[in-house]
From TrEMBL:
<keyword id="KW-0274">FAD</keyword>
<keyword id="KW-0560">Oxidoreductase</keyword>
<dbReference type="InterPro" id="IPR037069">
    <property type="entry name" value="AcylCoA_DH/ox_N_sf"/>
</dbReference>
<keyword id="KW-0285">Flavoprotein</keyword>
<protein>
    <submittedName>
        <fullName>Acyl-CoA dehydrogenase family protein</fullName>
        <ecNumber>1.-.-.-</ecNumber>
    </submittedName>
</protein>
<dbReference type="GO" id="GO:0016491">
    <property type="term" value="F:oxidoreductase activity"/>
</dbReference>
<dbReference type="InterPro" id="IPR046373">
    <property type="entry name" value="Acyl-CoA_Oxase/DH_mid-dom_sf"/>
</dbReference>
<dbReference type="InterPro" id="IPR009100">
    <property type="entry name" value="AcylCoA_DH/oxidase_NM_dom_sf"/>
</dbReference>
Amino acid sequence: MRFLQRERTVVEEVLPGLDQRLTALPLAKLEAADSPGVKLFCDAGGPGLLVPAEHGGRGADLLTALRVQRAIGSRSPSLAVATTMHHFSAASLVEAAATSSGMEWMLLAAIAKDNLLLASGFAEGRTGQGILNPSLTARTDGDKVFLSGSKKPCSLARSMNLLTASLPLPGPDGHDQLAIALIPADAPGVSVKPFWGSPILAGAESDEVVLDDVEVPAELLVRTDVTADGRLDQLQTVGFVWFEGLMTASYLGAASALVERVLGDTRASAAVAAEAVTCVESVALALEGLAADATTAGVTQDTLSRSLMCRYAAQDAINRVLSLSVEALGGMAFIGSGDVAYLNSACRALAFHPPSRSRMAAPLTEYFTGDAPLRIP
């Protein structure tokens, strides 16, 4: 089938064998809490996908990564969502290494060489709290920094090698600035507790990670220029663009799995199938335009605003695809297997990732009218 062929070809080029191994397993197994998906991803060299070639990785650009996530999402939405969190952190490290004389490049080399997985401990998932607001508390003792608190949900909680987390540290002017910490999963004081109660996206390992006065090694602390008002520095802007793009592509992949089933059903209306394909491919084209913009013009606040527009437009397009596809496949497909109902539910979760459309309404309006820099509240 020509549909999704390009994306799956890219996966085979950069992560050989992964798509075939995922295809060999039923969706229910890949989406279960004990899914083998993360291990298969690591076995294929997935953690090093974004690490530059000079540091031993695959050196994938944004366009390649978007296609990879769509293809993976069509096989296992849980795996796509979980690995997006890893890639988000990895992309931020790549940006930090490009503009820093610190030790970030050594971390990147270790990620690629040892297939290390990064979990994200940002404030995602806390109702009413901005994504830039740290979810952990920090205390300092001289040059040492200690973290306490918890992150829930935290994808890759059970498979992570490092947890990336945000924390406030005093800046040069005395005001708190955001810093990024990398905490080894086996560090004293780190533990994981069950949290995710839904069978939907259970394979993403989104449980609770608890930190009890955990020391952050000085070489694993990256300071940013982000202050309490939410204005983004370049490191954070790059990270957000990758996050929004890859998360959108992941859910687009899940919706594409339903469209693929419609295309393979000879009883489905050609008009409905064509409309469903048009919906998902329009989102893919928007994402590819985003990637081209990031490559040619660099990542700016304009790029970030476009990534948000892609994401919110994708939510609307995916909702339309779900309505079309579930009805076209019919009641027997819904009854005969849990896959249709599962994918229908999993795709809805794109709306739950930060920043929500409602939270960004005022900041985006202010940005497009030219009255203020883009902020993430």
